[in-house]
Amino acid sequence: MPLVPVPKSTFAQKLKRFFMVDLVKGMAVTLGFNIGALTDKDSVAGKGIYTEQYPKVRADVAPRFHGAPRLNMDPETHDTLCIACNLCALACPEDCIDVIPMDVEVVVAGKPRRKKVLDEFIFDTSRCMFCALCQEACPTYCLELTQDFELATYSRAGFVWNREMLEQGRETVKYTS
Amino acid sequence: MFALAAPTIIDNLLLKFFSEQTVNYVIWPLIQVGLVVVITTGWVAYATYLERKISAFMQARLGPMRVGPWGLLQPIADGLKLLTKEDFIPENADRWIFFVAPYIAVVAAFITLAVVPFGPDWAVITDVNIGVLFVLAVSSVGVLALILAGWSSNSKYALLGALRSSAQMVSYEVSMGLAIIGALMFARTLSMSGVVGAQASDKIWFFFYQPIGFVIFLISGIAENNRAPFDLPEAESELVAGFHTEYSGFRWSLFFMAEYAAMVVVTAVATTLYLGGWYFPFVYRFTEARGYHTAYVVISLIVFLAKAGLLLYLYFWLRWTLPRFRYDQLMDLGWKWMLPAALINIVVTALGIGVVQGLDGVRGMHTIVSISSGLALTPTGKIITVGIGIANLFLTAGILSLINWRSRDFNLKKQRRQIRLVDLPKGKPAVAPVETVSEARP
Amino acid sequence: MHQVEIATTRQSLLDAPEMTLNMGPQHPSTHGVLRVILKLDGETVIDLDCDVGYLHRGMEKIAENRMYTMIAPYWDRLDYIAAVSNGLVWVETVEQMMGLDVPKRAHYIRTILTELNRIASHLLWLGTHAMDIGAVTILLWAFREREEILKIFERQFGARLTCHAWRVGGMPNDAYDGFVEDCQRFVDNFPKRLDEYETVLSENRIWLSRTVGIGIISGEDAIAIGLSGPALRGSGVAWDIRKSRPYAAYADMDFEVPLGENGDTYDRYLVRMEEMRQSRRIIKQAIENLPDGPVNAKVPKLIKPPVGDYYHSIEGPKGEIGCYLVSDGTQQPWRVRVRPPCFINLQALKQMCIGHLVADVVAIIGTLDIVLGEIDR
Question: What range does the domain containing A12 cover?
Answer without folding.
Answer: 6-51
